[in-house]
Amino acid sequence: MNYLSEAGLDGSGGAGVSYPGSGVGVNPGQGPAPNSQPRRVPVPKLPLHWRAHHWPIIQQDVEGSDAVVVTFLRKAPGVHTVLLYIDCLTDATQPSRSEMEYLGDGIFAMSYQVPRGWRAGYSFYECAGFCVPWRVDADCPLDSLIDRSQTDPRNRMGCQDPQGRRLSLVEALPESGELASRPLAA
């Protein structure tokens, strides 16, 4: 069994990945965010052909729930840390809470449970050298990292933040079940 099957990324129903500190969201230090607010959750079992999908992958949370799980994935070989910046969700005072989990083979992942209709701009900041700026400098200005962050090449939807920076756009719309199974165009 390889790391993809152990993490449930090959569609075989593996154990999944658990994250210490799950429940990170818009209320840092106050426990899990309410169901109506985005909150970090373990990466769920992904569709069988997850590598062929648009990213992020959006899946129904539980039967009868109005929530969906958005799984952000980043392929970044040669990188040791990836910060996922989500507009209005990433806590600038605690950027380490937005570090993505390394799954192996250059793949990083992070999932959030969000209400249907939730939209957000996001980008990735990759660290390949010895320095992880927010660990070295407690006063590291997150804005300077966002200026050097990258959009998601697996997502064609985009937006701009108020400062004019280009971000990828995720929309957890009612039709998100269709988005989760839509393969990439050739």
UniProtKB/TrEMBL annotation:
Domain (Enterochelin esterase N-terminal): residue spans on this chain: 70-171
Stretch list, region Disordered: 20-40
SUPFAM superfamilies given in the database record: E set domains (SSF81296)
Biological-process GO terms, alphabetical: carbohydrate metabolic process; iron ion transport
Name of a matching Pfam family: Enterochelin_N
GO cellular component, one term: cytoplasm
A Gene Ontology molecular function term of the record: enterochelin esterase activity
Family: Belongs to the Fes family.
Protein name (database record): DUF3327 domain-containing protein
UniProt organism field: Nesterenkonia sedimenti
Lineage: Bacteria, Bacillati, Actinomycetota, Actinomycetes, Micrococcales
